Amino acid sequence: DLLAGDSAAGLRRLEEGLDAVAAPRSRGPTTFLRFQQALALSSGDATRGEGIQRLRYSFDTEPLFLPLSYFALGRAYEAAGASDSAASAYGQFLRLWDKADAGFQDRIAEAREALQRLTAEPRQ
After folding, report:
1. Model pLDDT for residues 104-123, shown as the tens digit of each residue
2. Are 91 and 116 in contact (CB under 8 A)?
3. Which of 10, 35, 51, 93 is an S-S bond match for 70, by CB 3.0 to 4.6 Å?
4. How far from each other are the two terminal CA atoms of the chain, in whole angstroms?
5. Does 2 map to a domain?
6. Which residue(s) pair with 26 in the sheet?
């Protein structure tokens, strides 16, 4: 559903899937689904605030997802017009992934370009 562009149905199905597999205090097996849900929420105008909250607070104990959550936060904050927060998130991502494998260099480059754009001096 999400890939087909139906974010409402996709988010509903993600929530149903999370409800089906989640047990109290059991986060590990649901991390990927929760991350996809946060990404989907953060990409929509009406749900961006909730997505940002989930990206900020749901992955701090998930070392494989923490850097990616900062990258996604940078994008979400930038889309929301929060340049300072976007720059901070991109900076955190770069600090955590400054020596990423070759397969991830496109994200590193995107974050560096965004950080440069967001922190550049305004033109006179």
Report:
1. 899 999 999 999 999 987 66
2. no
3. 93
4. 45
5. no
6. 23
Number of residues written out for the chain: 124
93 in any annotated domain: yes
Residue 5 burial by CB count (10 A; 0-12/13-18/19+): exposed, middle or buried? exposed
- Domain assignment present for residue 90? The answer is yes
Cβ neighbours of 25 (radius 10 Å):
5
Number of compact structural domains in the chain:
1
Neighbour-count burial of 11, counting CB atoms closer than 10 A to its CB (0-12 exposed, 13-18 middle, 19+ buried): buried
If DSSP codes are grouped into helix, strand and coil, which group holds residue 23?
Answer: strand
Q: Tens digits of per-residue pLDDT, 53-85?
A: 999 999 999 999 999 999 999 999 999 999 999
Residue 46 forms part of a structural domain: yes
* Residue 90 structural domain: 7-119
CATH number at residue 58: 1.25.40.10
The C-alpha angle 95, 96, 100, rounded to 5 degrees, equals 105
